[in-house]
Amino acid sequence: MAQARMFDTKLRLSFETGLNEKGEPIFKSKTFGNVKNTATADQLHQVAQAIAALSNDPLAAVVRNDSFDIVG
């Protein structure tokens, strides 16, 4: 039977940096690696808010990316 084994976790923060000529928002993202795979959603949210406080742009989204090896 195949098994999934987590090997990497990253945190991506997206910031709204302005508007384009059509009035649509422009987003820029920053990805942080070496995130503990045991971190909870609340912990990641707190970290994202702390990092966003250092930015001039508003935080638009927080995404957790877990990568798995599938072995069988």
UniProtKB/TrEMBL annotation:
Domain DUF1659, which positions? 6-71
Give the InterPro entries listed for this entry.
Answer: DUF1659
Q: What is this protein called?
A: DUF1659 domain-containing protein
Q: Which organism is it from?
A: Cytobacillus dafuensis
